[in-house]
Design brief:
With 452 residues, the chain is α/β, with parallel strands linked by helices. The protein is built from twelve helices and 17 strands. The protein folds into two domains: 114 residues, Aspartate Aminotransferase, domain 1, CATH 3.90.1150.10; 257 residues, Type I PLP-dependent aspartate aminotransferase-like (Major domain) (Aspartate Aminotransferase, domain 2, 3-Layer(aba) Sandwich). The strands form five sheets. The chain has a seven-stranded mixed β-sheet, with helices on both faces. A four-stranded antiparallel β-sheet has the order 13-14-17-16, with helices on one face.
Amino acid sequence: MAYISNTNEDRAEMLSAMGFTSFDALLAPLPPAIRYQGELNIPTALDEGGVLRRLQQLAAKNVDLESHLCFLGAGIYDHFRPVVVGMLAVRGEFATAYTPYQPEVSQGTLQAIYEYQTLICGLTNMDISNASMYDGATGLAEAALMATSILNRGDIVVSGAVNPLYRQVIQTYANVTGYRVVEVPTAEGVTDTERLSEIVNSQTACVVFQQPNFFGNLEDVETLTETAHKAGALAISAVDPISLGLLKPPGDYGVDIVLGEGQSLGNAMGFGGPLLGFFACNKRFVRSFPGRIVGATQDSQGRRGYTMTLRTREQDIRREKATSNICTNQALLALCATIYLCELGKTGLRHVADLSLQKAHYAFQQLCAIEGVKPLFPNAKFFKEFALSLPVSPSELNTSLLQSKIVGGLDLGAYYPEFAGSSLFCVTETKTKAGIDALVSATEGVVKGGKA
């Protein structure tokens, strides 16, 4: 059993080995005024077993999905992660070079990326996919910059129903590139298409929207796309990949660039990361594509092999010719997404999407039956997230729900002051009827002035 030594004799021996007679002598170069006076609150030494028990005690203070029900979404989602994802992702075939510059030693990684690209193209019905981005937010910013470069226009038009964190990232990019971000207001929880048609003009590089949008509502994507194209602008859609098990893929309604957050495809929620941005577009924009593309080929003996066929990052080519400064991809998370999609297949993904849809609507109906709880957008159609106006403050409700080991919805007032007093709830296929009923019962208790 290993022990961490912390005795006075041991400290004296270490000081002596360094040539000091005391700890004060060690600190002599530091002025007394900046020295800490007193003893640090350092726990006594523990053996290995004691350290593990202490760490377990600390970990038990965390709120996790094994001990709590989670109805929080807003970009990070509690979807089931099959055990096979983690089991296959650690196989040696995929543990080749971190950045697969040398294909002869990176075939496992390259094939996984190739299959990932193929799956993303199939999921979105787009022509090409890159080997992933950092996350959905940076993917959206890269898509907007890509549009400005292609069309040589300076206005980025963004729906106010796009994830506010994504919009912040776009604005950050625009601040240093000189492009102008124009926000389109919402009406009844979706993009105001009339205002959009008034805003879009010959200086518009792209129209950016989200499907389903941040509120969980379904947009009129055909009208949004058509409005962009009438002005000669590109249509960019951020999508929830799970929703594509039921909803029309973006390639079918004519968008030019598609992206989204792939965390829900077999990756853990974590503490908001790490994340996976998927990115796809029409083939005609391949030379303006950020990131890199892996292709399949044959070697001199006719054997199938994989290699990077396009690299347009500043790490790979002259900076002035680069399309992006992102110098890596989320290969491990993309691998998990690949395994997840292969494990579920088309039928499985559709089933996950359908369960999320049905359970979310059940939760919506039950919560709206509570006196004082009302839908924030009564006429909107939604997928797995919905916004409710509450008779109590969202923070008060969430604090009480935590006492019942329930993670409540997102306080919309934090991002939309006009919707203060409203919460955004998310329900996925992982929630049971009993779990949803527990949320409803606890919410009703808080609304009536009792305890959750």
